[in-house]
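cron nightly-structures :: item 1 of 1
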Amino acid sequence: MLSASAKRFLLPFWAQKNKDPKEAAVVFAVAELNRNRGGGFLARQPQETLTFIAKIAYPIWLFPKNGTTLIFDGLNDKNYNIPYFEMPHAEKFMENFEQKQRPRENYTAFLIDHTNYFTQPPKEHQFTLKGLITEAEFREEFNNYKREATELTEPAPLLSPTLEETTIIGTIREFDTLQMIHRAQEEKLFECLRRLKKTTSQYITEISYEAMAADEEADAKIKAQEELDKPQTTKLNKEYSQKIKQLTESFDKELDSLVKLRLKIQTAIEKNQDNIEQYKRETKAHAKKGHEIYEKRWKQKIKKSEKEFTEFKKELKKIDDTTKKITKQKEQEISRLNFEWDAEIKLIRQPLLVLERTKAAKNQAFKQENNQLLQMEKPVVESIEKILNHKKTNATTLDRLGFSDPQLKAPRWVYVPFYVACYETDFTRRYFCIAPSTIQKADFGSKLKGAFGMSKTKDLLVPRFKSLTNFIIQIQECIKKNSAFERQLWGLGEKNNLLKNNDFQESIKNGLVMLQEQDILSQRETEALTRQLKA
């Protein structure tokens, strides 16, 4: 059913604006070339009869949408599926959030409970845009081709469309509604993200302020306790410093007397050594003189001095041992006093140490709560961001499925012309479609073929558009599958059979002559095609 309001435009088959008789001749020649003439070595095939050649137009919708023109197959032979994903419901998440965002403990529990809320894989669905043609090459070629269209004001053999304007409008509205729902869901997710980050940030700030306040309170208590402890500590320090001083002086006095005694004995030892050396010299001198009595006396003195030396050494060792003992006692006593001193200081500072440990424990607790809050928020935020990035990556908008044409304001039909040749035998019917083309100019290769007696007919037509040609060729497959479409095509072909049109036949004759003159067809081919036209 045609829209009463939509204008209809027809595209030219041939590139030239004016009618060219060669078009009819080339179409007839190509149609004849594709006719089965029967024969065959293994299985004899029946000869086909060219029943009709008709020039028919295929309906294409051009549908404007926000500056983008969408192309729809008027026979609804093509569909385009747009994948979309069902997002997790943010409304329930926000409802729970509103209930548990305060106090802080509830918010932390909420984050823990909703860690995996958005991690479930989204369900994939398909939205079908009936008849939408999206191939990039087709869009580009059709955008160029449509500039040649002229408004259709006279009756023409047109294929009846099955895709109505109301269907397209309804489908686009449904798609817009779907996108609107998804945009609302996306905005809701952004709102979830914004509220989560804002709430977490507020609580992080709150924890920071609480930590600062706790530090200030603890510092004040610590300072007050230090002031309280200071007199006792000062007194204790003074007492123990005095004790250590007195103890040190007592031990040092004893050690000094030992040092003096040792020095005295050391001096005596040195003098004793000098005496022994002197006695030895005297002994030798008297022995040399032969004074035995004097020699004996000096030897007795040496022996006595050596005995004294031994006693001195023993005394010196005794002094050293005593010095070591007293020094060790001194160290032990001072160490004991320092230990007692530290113990009493610690006892006095015990309340202060409790305050300092309490402060450190509170700081650690605030730090842990801060880190826990960030760790609990992270998987929820990341899962929402992942969904939003996935949606952004896979988003499909209609402006990407058409071509830009701000001038087109209303839907219109644009009909693509094609020739269809119908061949029949006693039992079968076959169709051959020719897409918009242009004639192949005679070149050295085609002339060479003619010189060797080879047919150049199959090289006569060059498709104007690759993707459009593939589109028209698919009609032949549609005929085989769709009996209703085949009946429609047969009816239009019989009714508009160009082989029964005198003007078309005359164009064929004139065109064949022109093709021969341009050395595109040989004389033999021209004569054969002329005979077939008269048959």
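cron nightly-structures :: done
DSSP finds eleven helices and twelve strands in the chain.
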